Amino acid sequence: MLEAVDQALARLYPARAWGAPQPSASGRGADAEAAALAEELAQELDAAVFLRRGEAGEHCDFLYVLCVGRPPCAIQVRDQGVPPPAEWEGEATLAESYLRVALSSLARMAVVQEVAVEVRGDGGGWLVRELPRAGVYSAPLLRRFQRLVAILPAYDILHVDLGDISGPPPDYEPGEWPSLFAGTPAVTNYLFYPQPATMVTTTWLPADGDAT
Question: Mind giving me the DSSP string for 20-38?
């Protein structure tokens, strides 16, 4: 696994510095592949799975596997425009748990994290907080995690353990990353997404408007 990671870094970043990667034909194929994988995971894991396309600067798409909670869930409301369910009304706090799969568009690799999503009513809308962890630790998620990892090879996708790529690659320069985030970029930031792996994000969902 680590040898494949080193080879991908050398191919994508010949200048050995974080930044825009070199064009590569070794990433995932058509966008339909992520949707097909989401469909299979939903069947095999007996769970709702939601696809979020990567935003500008993110070199991956995300699959959210709902493990604790029920549809319509926070990811559907936040990312897909699904109306909030009735239980969101008021000031109650709701908690959901997901396996979040990042599918690299630069290399045929995936990394999986456990994420908690909290919803809190706040006046005229809701605060949705996504709190990623540095791996998968909760016992209720482990069975699905193991099955998920076993499915990826059928798509010629290598599962990369987040703990093994949470540090900076040796002898690589951080480029502009420190001006965007504090610290030094990890391997994760070269192959998947620029933000720190455990960065908490908060989205404001007004009751009658667009998310911010």
Answer: SPPP-SSS---THHHHHHH
Query: How many C-beta atoms surround the C-beta of residue 111 within 10 A?
Result: 26
Domains of the chain by residue range: 2-206
- Residue 88 is predicted with a pLDDT of 86
- pLDDT tens by residue, 49-106: 999 999 989 999 999 999 999 999 999 999 999 999 888 887 668 999 999 999 999 9
Which DSSP state fits 83?
Answer: P
Instruction: Give the integer Cα–Cα distance in Å for 118 and 110.
Output: 25
Integer Cα distance of 65 and 84 in angstroms = 19
* Neighbouring residues of 129: CB distance < 8 A, sequence distance ≥ 6: 117, 118, 120, 200, 201, 202, 203
C-alpha to C-alpha distance for 204 and 212, rounded to whole angstroms: 5
Q: For residues 137-159, give the mean pLDDT.
A: 96
